Amino acid sequence: MKVFFKRLGYLILFGILIILYSTFVEPKLLRVIFHDVPLSKIQGEAIKVVQFSDTHIGDFFTLEDLQEVVDKINEQDVDLVLFTGDLMDNAANYDGAIDEIAIVLSKIKSKFGKYAVFGNRDYGGGAERFYEDLMESAGFNVLLNNHETLNIKGTTLSLFGADDALIGYYDSVQTMKGIQENHLNVLMLHEPDLADDFINYPVDLVVAGHSHGGQVYIPFVGPLMTTALAEKYVRGFYEINRDMNLYVNTGIGNTKAPFRLFNVPQITVFYLKTK
């Protein structure tokens, strides 16, 4: 009986430590992940791209935390910055912080531009009224079912951005208008499961967020929970077809609960280089 209670005590202690770690330690960590992405359409030097996603500014993520993200991004000295949505957790609670958020985001440096798409949280809670203006005042171009073509280090890169599909005005056909097969085509989504809608287009790389990697990710098991349009593709790289890869960023902030476990907040740096 003593052995039983001793083991029970250890289990309870271990559980308390896990809760404390996943609430107060791991969510405050921030790591930069690097990936080489070989692409046959790269014509010149490698292009360095950073993606960040799902900051969810709110109860679990402050402006000070956002400044840390900005500092980390600027340390990378990148060519292109991509934000794949969900800036605030509940915009209705943070009307007074809009200008401050824009000021912090405006400090992000990028040689060839900063781009963003809407996430579902960028529509909800009244965020639709100001998200686009906020991001543009911070120097971001917001893509809404459209694209821009850039010439970066000898490569013609077309950057496509689809609108949010849960609350927004998502239109995959409109998004792909004007796509050219000989361009390096990069697609920004918020919800990763939408990648399947683009399987017949000459898209080379898709980047998405939304999933948070489940927030709690159990090794050898998977995410504790998934969310709508992030059930098939949850985190990391996926081969959608022979020519198109999807990368799902697990994001930075939290929603609904403060926990993160085996799922450190991340900024991702891609080196797009010739095959």
Automatic annotation (TrEMBL):
Signal peptide as annotated in the record: none
Transmembrane segments: 7-24
Keywords attached to this entry: Membrane, Transmembrane, Transmembrane helix
Record's keyword annotation contains 4Fe-4S: no
InterPro entries for this protein: Calcineurin-like_PHP (IPR004843), Metallo-depent_PP-like (IPR029052), Metallophosphoesterase_sf (IPR051158)
Pfam families xrefs: Metallophos
Every Calcineurin-like phosphoesterase domain range: 47-213
Alphabetized PANTHER family for the sequence: PHOSPHOESTERASE (PTHR31302:SF25), TRANSMEMBRANE PROTEIN WITH METALLOPHOSPHOESTERASE DOMAIN-RELATED (PTHR31302)
Protein name as it appears in the record: Metallophosphoesterase
Record organism: Turicibacter bilis
